[in-house]
TrEMBL record:
It comes from Marinigracilibium pacificum. Transmembrane segments: none annotated. This is UDP-N-acetylmuramoyl-L-alanyl-D-glutamate--2,6-diaminopimelate ligase. Its main location: cytoplasm. GO terms for biological process: cell division; cell wall organization; peptidoglycan biosynthetic process; regulation of cell shape. One of its GO terms (cellular component) is cytoplasm.
Length: 487
């Protein structure tokens, strides 16, 4: 139980009707999940308007309502508080409700189009291995020390986020690493959260269905840095041309990393193989288990954060050389016959290009590259032809298939992808909407030594078709096909 007036601390209030001295049992943004004596926060969403569900919330037992405009008819037993922006107010309220947990833990947020999960997961594993109890909030999973809590979003809503952070604090975590998506920044999911540091990995074409323009998408990512305090650090990839823009208005101390430009944390790639890579970081040569140039950036970001959090650089590099990548990110599945399978979460043109460039760099002879790729339904459609074109440019054979079709027709999604292919590229393309059959075909095409890339779903263990999540795991399907081939 918490006093409403305490929870409203630092919220900019326009109007109050009723008593704010009452205690409330919890906060809720979904009228369908309202518990007795709770406070319902009405948010204008992308599909619905929470203000239309205020009476439902009251029927389910809400005692207080936070909204942007008071309803025409007021219930005398209920306290109504009108605020400027309910979503922003929710962030502050959720932080207050859970005892401002982000002020009691060193929290680092990672934003960028690609690399968030990889960097956050590696930071979590690194700091655990250095002896700190840590929390992780990511696309793949949330963690409090060794306890795994399933994840539904890359960045959870403000209530879930603060509740998770409070559990981390209660369980003795001293550090937490989280992904901060552009959706979360725009929707104020991290409003009121105190970050010890923020990391920018890179920005490229994605989510334009939501943000509409690339400039708006850049502005969304920048919000993380605009919100950092003067005691925080910002760490940005200077090789990305938007790195500097991210920190234009930040109060935080600015730090940079990169492979090309002058940077505070700079590395040189010495070798890059299917077994791992060697980097020279300042004057130290270190071997890492991760593969590919883009992972050199991820490793540098992790190293930079650790040093900025005052860990010993030598100890950090030695622990980092033991670290594996995040699940479903360039995950290898090798067949008994010697075919290299790579399962990767590349679901944007930039990520796909990076992964395929890496594979091209790793080719040693005449081995073929066979790529199986689709694009998600009810998501940015402009990336579809681009992804097909990239797949065709770098591969000897391309199998266009379904990702998560959601509520779209898989055949239509594949048609959108095919639009990116020229006549010569069409010759190496096969379209097969059934993802399992597509993987089977790739394995049938492959000969020992060849490389099969299965892109787009990485760690996902389901395929979402018309609102139903069916069991599906690219890694398991690929293993199954390799085994069948070997029988
Ligand atoms: C497009 C989007 O981001 N939507 C998120 C948003 O929901 P919304 O604005 O669409 O909500 P809405 O359906 O319009 O409803 C508005 C309000 O009315 C309430 N409502 C609605 C119906 C009802 O009967 N009663 C009721 O109270 C809803 O609970 C909500 O508070 O706010 C919700 C609560 O925080 C999120 O769960 C929801 O995520 C949806 C499920 C989603 O798919 N989001 C994806 C796109 C997303 O957020 N992805 C990023 C990662 C992107 C990346 O790859 O980088 C992420 O952080 O996961
Ligand atoms: N630093 C990077 N630069 C470019 N591509 C990367 C980078 N790191 C990873 N990738 C590619 O992008 C894919 C997604 O990586 P990761 O899951 O770490 O990113 P993310 O930002 O968490 O993505 P999401 O927004 O979907 O959660 C990887 O599978 C890999 O192909
Ligand atoms: N966070 C991303 C993940 C996309 C993963 C891909 N497999 C797809 O389903 O499109 C999104 O929701 O857009
Ligand atoms: Mg992620």
């Amino acid at each position: 139980m918490n006093k409403l007036s305490d929870i409203l601390y630092k919220v900019s209030i326009r109007q109050v009707k009723g008593d704010t001295g009452m205690t409330i049992s919890g906060l809720e943004i979904d009228s369908r999940a309202v518990m007795p004596d709770s406070c319902f926060v009405a948010i204008r969403g992308t599909v619905a308007d929470g203000h239309n569900f205020i009476s439902n919330a009251i029927e389910k037992g809400a005692k207080a309502i936070i909204c942007e405009a008071l309803p025409d008819e007021l219930n005398e037993k209920i306290t109504y508080v009108a605020v400027e922006d309910s979503a922003a107010a929710l962030g502050t309220m959720a932080s207050n409700f859970y005892g401002n947990p982000s002020t009691k833990i060193q929290l680092v947020g990672v934003t960028g189009t690609n690399g968030k999960t990889t960097v956050a997961t590696m930071l979590f594993r690194l700091f655990q291995s250095l002896g700190h109890k840590c929390g992780l909030i990511s696309t793949v999973e949330n963690r409090i020390g060794d306890v795994v809590i399933p994840s539904t979003h890359t960045t959870p809503d403000a209530i879930r986020l603060n509740s998770l952070l409070a559990d981390m604090v209660k369980d003795g975590c001293t550090y937490a690493f989280m992904e901060v998506s552009s959706h979360a920044l725009v929707q104020h999911r991290v409003a009121g959260v105190k970050f010890a540091g923020g990391v920018f990995t890179n920005i490229s074409h994605d989510h334009l269905d939501y943000h509409k323009t690339f400039d708006a998408y850049i502005e969304a990512k920048k919000l993380l840095f605009d919100g950092l305090g003067s005691d925080a650090f910002a760490l940005v990839n200077v090789d990305d041309k938007r790195g500097k823009i991210m920190v234009q208005n930040t109060k935080a101390s600015i730090n940079t990393y990169g492979l090309r430009q002058l940077a505070d944390f700079k590395a040189r790639m010495i070798s890059n193989t299917l077994q791992g890579m060697e980097l020279q970081i300042h004057d130290q040569h270190v071997w890492f288990k991760l593969i590919g140039r883009f992972n050199a950036y991820n490793l540098l970001a992790v190293y930079g954060v650790a040093v900025l959090l005052e860990e010993d650089p030598t100890e950090v590099l030695s622990a980092m050389s033991e670290l594996a990548g995040a699940p479903g990110r360039f995950e290898l599945v090798i067949s008994p016959a010697g075919i290299t399978g790579i399962v990767d979460y590349a679901h944007t043109p930039d990520a796909l290009e990076n992964v395929l460039e890496t594979i091209t760099d790793l080719r040693t002879g005449n081995e073929k590259v066979i790529t199986v790729v689709g694009a998600g339904g009810n998501r940015d459609t402009t990336k579809r032809p681009e992804m097909a074109a990239i797949a065709a440019r770098f591969s000897d054979k391309v199998i266009l298939t379904s990702d998560n079709p959601r509520f779209e027709d898989p055949v239509e999604i594949i048609k959108d992808m095919e639009k990116g292919l020229g006549p010569s590229q069409l010759k190496k393309k096969v379209s097969l909407p059934d993802r399992k059959e597509a993987i089977r075909l790739a394995v049938n095409f492959a000969e020992p030594g060849d490389i099969i890339l299965i892109a787009g779903k990485g760690h996902e263990t389901y395929q979402e078709i018309e609102g139903v999540k069916h069991d599906f795991d690219d890694r398991a399907v690929l293993k199954e096909m390799f085994d069948i081939m070997n029988d």
